[in-house]
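Human: I wish I could look at a protein chain and see how it folds. This is the protein in question:
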Amino acid sequence: MTEPGGTEVMEKTILKNNITSEAEKIVNISIPLITDKNIVAPSGDKRDFVCLSPYFWLVDGKLEQRDGQVNPATKEYSDADKLTQVTANVYLTSLAAKQSEIPDDKEKFASYAVSTLKAWFVNEDTRMTPSLEYVEMKQGETDGTFYGIIRGQMLSQMVEGIKSLRDSGSLDEQTKTGVENWFRQYLGWLQNSPKGNQERAAQNNHGTFYDVQIAYIADFLGDEDLVRVTLEGVKKRVESQIEPDGKMPLEAARAIPYDYQLYNLYAYSELATLGEKYAIDLWNWQSEDGRSLRKAFDYFKKQLDEVDNNPFKMDRAGELYLAFRAASKAYGDKSSWDLPKRFYQNPLVDEITTLKFNEIPPENK
């Protein structure tokens, strides 16, 4: 028979053990570097992030756009995969450091995360250039595209890990200053570059994820005014992207519509979650003619309820768990909490989102 409080303690221990187990694997591998690659940006600088646009194919000297079909040549470029990997590494090791009650483990995980931050954002020889000028180049061309800026959306998760390290005192002052300077430069590029201005104006998920980057980086840097302006502006995006019945027509028209509808809802869930911190209720805001995030979630959830098999063409486990569990918490809807498990059995993401949205505290609190 379980003692009072025993179930909660057991859940916390399972969460901690699984996250710690993953972090143990991470700290035993070398830090991936953006400068360690075979194909360099047209600038000749290995620090410049470079990748190909996934849906453009060079066929007999002519470009063809094939929505939803990834050009295999993209795999020859390693920067996108590395940024994804180091973001996950920093997030998970910072989370493990926060949860660990063993001083040596706490130090080990935090040290790895800080070393990764130094390599990617501080050390002059290896840090990534704080811009995305060569992101998602069309095959055969030598300049990036504005819509490639969406590759930076994962930096919102990166700053969450950085804030955890900073708030716990694990981030030394020199690294903290260097990382903040990098993000301040990148934020300036997003706001003032021609590509950034084009991405801001995008009417689909690209515009939504632009707001995610601006809001989370501004929050990290303590620019409350910019966060508030950005979050208030999200209401305009809801009005332009979501129909009164909840449909997102631009995402639904894509070649892989389930993927892109979810992708956009994930972006909105990130913004609405940050809005809670600033008392800006995007979860429940509604336009005069009835457009709202809640209707968009309900509309898409109904679509998912009508399919038997996984309708996603890409691995969307992370987005599905994060978006629908955030919505579950916001709307008090248990069915949204359980929904991701119908399509993905992912114990790590399951546990991370349980920790994040159920707010199960570490045992030492």
Q: What stands out?
A: The first strand starts at residue 50 and ends at 52. Confidence is low (pLDDT under 50) at residues 1-15, 360-365. Strands lie at 50-52, 56-59, 62-65, 134-137. The chain is about 55% helix and 5% strand.
